[in-house]
Every structure is written in structure tokens, then in C-alpha cells.
């Protein structure tokens, strides 16, 4: 029986208790001499040394509240991307911003749309806001604009799209994003989650800055957790219409980004060399991993991000679960993605050369046994 039926204790709002809590990627291997964690899309190159130094320097003033508006961080981001800092809001990770957007724009009876294998935080945020999650089918593990549009009703408030998406790695070309936006009523907010935008090297891709600049109903969210290597600090930001920024600033925590996070974030965004080195490493290994794993006879969904989705056969001893067990017993932790509706898949984050080569060797052994 649900706790709310008992009426002998505080009762959460409708929808809260049907939320499946987010389960992060595992951190521990079951064997091996060393653990290679390739389960949470963390960068193998770590943060910029300048960001680490800035974080350490901030340790001297921990008794002080930070600047609640993250002014210098927004200025640094604005300068880096040519954006008006007044149209940037920083958050405790982009997860906070996704939740705030849902809270602000979705209420009971309202609908939020995301796609079949979309990032699980969207569903949690919609339900937590009291709304109804509406799920659009994908095609070839890729968001499909026509399927999304077919689900838009007068109750639709927000559409969340990760571009590229986690855990599939697939992306929508900018023409498709624009086609989607053009067909939406002006009252529907389109949220483009660009957590992996820095990794994408495709001519037909855009994280959506122009679309945000020229419209009142598009938001782009970004994070310092992936290419900047600051996942532990919890820093995200969004570029949004002035009116949306005003709304988010009314409901966010007044000091939602910590002082050390602000300082490290500024140093990270300014270290463009480090970002480029990280993107180069990723591009090189994304190709090698995709090609070599395919050569073993396994299917790999084409990825534009910093991970690959590997599919395993549905045969006893050869399934994704068997592979997960085998890899983990040899020190390599990948991400099972059945919670994303992909029971045959394991998601592998691009790691260091050492981690990548070990994983390829182990996968070869697994396939051959
Ligand atoms: C990792 C990830 C994020 C980042 O979340 P943070 O809260 O900024 O760490 C956002 N969206 C997607 C799709 C992700 O995979």
C-alpha cells in the first residue's frame, strides 16, 4: 500500500511516489586489480589544472556566501560563446535547471514530452512537477520529430530533447530541430539539453544558440560535468529568453552555485586548449571503439557524444548482462541501460587509452568464448 493511503503522516503530492529514483552508473568493479569506471560519461582527462588551482584557491573564503547571481561565471560563459550574460542562469548542475524548468512550466494536468530512450531526469522532473510524462517513439535509437509533433496537445507545456542524447549518443541535425520548433505552438517550451555539445563534430549539428536568441520558447542547457571534468562540483547553466531567466531566478536557490564552483567554472571555460584536447581525444577514440567493436560482430549505435552504446545478442551466455558481469569481474565498469528501455545494451564512456584498450581486449575475449 502506498504511504499516502494511510493518512497518518505527511502526504507527498500526486505523482511523487510513482517516480523511480534515478540510479547512477555503478562505481565499483567486482574484480580486476584496478577499477576502470566507464559508466557515468566522466572525462578520462580530468578537469583543467587551472580549474583545480582556482578551486583550491577558493578554499580560503569558505565562510563567505558566494555571489548568488554567479555574475562572473555568467560573464565568462557569455564571453566564450558570444551570449548576453543576462540571458544565462547557472545551476547546481544542469539537472537543477531541468527540474526548475519543469517546476515553473508544468503543473497538474499538464504534459511534458521526451523521447523513448531519452535522459531519465526528464521523466522525474515532469512527475515531480505534478505533470504527465508523454513519451515519443524513436527511430533507430534517434529522436523523431514527426513522432514528437504527433503528441503535442493543448496540454503540452515542455519538450525535453538531449542533443546528442544519453544513453544512445545519437543526435538530431539542426534542420530537424528547427523543423520541430517551427511546428510548435508559441506556448510550448522546447528545452535543448546540450550536455555533450562540446564533443559533437558534425557540420549539420548545432546546440541551438541561434534558436534561443531568436525565439521566446527555446532554452539550451549545458553542463560543466562532462567535457570540463567538474561533475563533482555540480555546475550547469542555461541560455534562455529573458522572461524564462526571470522565472528561473525567482525559484532557484538564492546561492545555488558554490564559491569554489564559480571559480573553477570560470577557469574551466577559459581553458579552451583543455576543452579542445579533450574533444580530440574523444573523437579519436570514438572512431576506434566504434570500428573495433563492430569488427567483433557487435552492433554499435553511431554516437556523436563521449560514449558508445553497444548491443549484445539475446543468446544465453552472450547477453549484455553476461558481458557486464565479465567486464566487471575484470575491472571494467560499463553502464547497463535497461532502465532506458534498452535491455540488450551497455553504454561505454570513452576512457583513457589504457581503459579503452583493456575494454576492447576484454570484449574480444567475451565474444570469442
Ligand atoms: C550528464 C548529463 C547531464 C548533466 O547533468 P549535471 O547535473 O549538469 O551533472 C544533463 N543531461 C544529460 C543528457 C546528461 O547525460
Average pLDDT number: 96
Give the distance, in angstroms, between the N- and C-terminal Cα atoms: 46 Å
Derived structural class: alpha/beta
Shape: globular
According to CATH, what is the class of the largest domain? Alpha Beta
Strand percentage, roughly?
5-15%
* Overall strand count: 13
Number of helices: 12
**What ranges have pLDDT less than 50 throughout 5 or more consecutive residues?**
none
Biggest pleated-sheet summary: 7 strands, mixed
Helix fraction by DSSP (H/I, runs of at least 4): 25-40%
CATH fold-level name of the largest domain:
Aspartate Aminotransferase, domain 2
Q: Can you name the CATH architecture of the largest domain? A: 3-Layer(aba) Sandwich
Numbering strands along the chain, what is their spatial order in the largest sheet? 2-8-7-6-5-3-4
Order of helices and strands: EHHEHEHEHEHEHEEHHHEEHEEEH
Domains, number: 2
Q: For the record, what is the CATH homologous superfamily label of the largest domain? A: Type I PLP-dependent aspartate aminotransferase-like (Major domain)
Report Rg. Answer: 21 Å
Which cofactors or ions or other ligands sit in this model?
pyridoxal-5'-phosphate
User: Oligomeric state of the chains?
Assistant: single chain
Amino acid at each position: 500500500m502506498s504511504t499516502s493511503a494511510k493518512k497518518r503522516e505527511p502526504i507527498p503530492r500526486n505523482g511523487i511516489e510513482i517516480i523511480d529514483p534515478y540510479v547512477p552508473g555503478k562505481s565499483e568493479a567486482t574484480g580486476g586489480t584496478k577499477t576502470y569506471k566507464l559508466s557515468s560519461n566522466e572525462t578520462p582527462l580530468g578537469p583543467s589544472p587551472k580549474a583545480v588551482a582556482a578551486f583550491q584557491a577558493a578554499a580560503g573564503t569558505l565562510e563567505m556566501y558566494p555571489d548568488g547571481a554567479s555574475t562572473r561565471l555568467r560573464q565568462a560563459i557569455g564571453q566564450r560563446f558570444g551570449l548576453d550574460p543576462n540571458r544565462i542562469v547557472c545551476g547546481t548542475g544542469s539537472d537543477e535547471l531541468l527540474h526548475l524548468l519543469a517546476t515553473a512550466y508544468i503543473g497538474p494536468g499538464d504534459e511534458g514530452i521526451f523521447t523513448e530512450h531519452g535522459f531519465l531526469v526528464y521523466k522525474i522532473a515532469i512527475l515531480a512537477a505534478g505533470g504527465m510524462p508523454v513519451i515519443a517513439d524513436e527511430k533507430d535509437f534517434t529522436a523523431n520529430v514527426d513522432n514528437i509533433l504527433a503528441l503535442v496537445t493543448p496540454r503540452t507545456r515542455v519538450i525535453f530533447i538531449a542533443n546528442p542524447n544519453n544513453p544512445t549518443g545519437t543526435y538530431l541535425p539542426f534542420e530537424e530541430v528547427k523543423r520541430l520548433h517551427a511546428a510548435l505552438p508559441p506556448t510550448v517550451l522546447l528545452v535543448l539539453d546540450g550536455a555533450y555539445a562540446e564533443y559533437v563534430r558534425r557540420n549539420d549539428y548545432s546546440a541551438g544558440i541561434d534558436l534561443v536568441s531568436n525565439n521566446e520558447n527555446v532554452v539550451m542547457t549545458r553542463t560543466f560535468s562532462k567535457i570540463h571534468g567538474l561533475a563533482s562540483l555540480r555546475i550547469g547553466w542555461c541560455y534562455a529568453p529573458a522572461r524564462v531567466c526571470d522565472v528561473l531566478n525567482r525559484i532557484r536557490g538564492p546561492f545555488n552555485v558554490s564559491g569554489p564552483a564559480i571559480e573553477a567554472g570560470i577557469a574551466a571555460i577559459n581553458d579552451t586548449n583543455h576543452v579542445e584536447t579533450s574533444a580530440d581525444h574523444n573523437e579519436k577514440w570514438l572512431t576506434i571503439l566504434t570500428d573495433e567493436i563492430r569488427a567483433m560482430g557487435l552492433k554499435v549505435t553511431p554516437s556523436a557524444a563521449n560514449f558508445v552504446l553497444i548491443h549484445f545478442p539475446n543468446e544465453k551466455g552472450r547477453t549484455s548482462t553476461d558481458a557486464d558481469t565479465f567486464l566487471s569481474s575484470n575491472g571494467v565498469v560499463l553502464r547497463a541501460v535497461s532502465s532506458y528501455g534498452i535491455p540488450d545494451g551497455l553504454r561505454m564512456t570513452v576512457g583513457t587509452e589504457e581503459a579503452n584498450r583493456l575494454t576492447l581486449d576484454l570484449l574480444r575475449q567475451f565474444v570469442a568464448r
